[in-house]
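Comment thread on ticket #2218

A.B. wrote:
> Attaching the input chain for the structure job we discussed in standup.
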Amino acid sequence: MKLKKLYSSREVAQLTGLTARQLQWWEQRKLFIATVPSHKTDAGGHTERRYTPIELLELMVLADLRRKGFTVQRIRKLLQVLKSRFKTRLYDAIEGGGPVTLFIDGENIYARNDAGDLFNLLDDAAQPLLMLGEDIKLRQLIARERPARRRAKGTAVSDKRGASQP
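C.D. wrote:
> Ran it. Output below, let me know if you need it in another format.
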């Protein structure tokens, strides 16, 4: 992935697997707002939203959570808890870059602070968890680019006009 100053909503959609419509819907509901929002042009059209590299990484994580079945409500709660309880944004909590590090077990998202305390962000983020046993499988939450879709050999792909191309 080539780093740029700003990414269009089309580029973000391609890299994350989210659709442009999802990004628009998230912005309308103030779940995730682009640095440069869409605005009306003099010609009567609209400009594309633009996202920073940090926002792109956050959207990669959120898209991965959506693919894993996390609802928009749970994602909203995650972002709110990080902001209100831990005074950080998602970017600073992924890959161990900030005051907390995020982990996932498939159903829940956990934050571990610098003191080693673990919190369930979607249940009770104010109460540290008491961890017993070794069988709890947590995986660190990281930003990953959506893998490119592979097409089967010999299949034709339609272009924007509907014409078939190999």
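A.B. wrote:
> Thanks. Noting for the ticket: The helical segments are 9-16, 20-28, 53-67, 72-84, 90-93.
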